[in-house]
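Repro:
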Amino acid sequence: MGAAVLVAGIGNELMGDDGLGVEVARILQKSMLPSGVTVLALGNSILSCLDDLAQAHTVVVVDAMKGGQVPGTVYSAVLQYPFPASFSFSGTWRDSHGMTVLDVIMLSRAMTGRPARVLVYGMEPASLEPHVGLTQTIAESCEVLARHILKNLKEMTLTP
């Protein structure tokens, strides 16, 4: 049996702050994670996590998310099935096969019934221009977001 909770850091590290989900995942991978939590820094390799999704009860997705707020603003949501047609993030959630993370989650759910629950943490990027590395504001905000997610993961895994 796989992880009860799978954290997936999504984003394109060649597009500036779009790589923030990957950075948050890397920070979490260095943390003391609760039992049953797996963290993957997926980048744009969304389809590669299909087997992991099929084994997870809860998936936590982390990515850049444009909402028109100040860079570093954190957004969070629990997605209910079916996903709203208007739901989108920074627009770079597509892998090389043209699938979005939501497409892959829905495929896994159709095939296995898992994941049962999807949580999303998004952060307002400062720049999505072609550039390797995060802006300073977003790099600092990634540390804060990772601590927040870790706290929530601990609470999640303590709850029966």
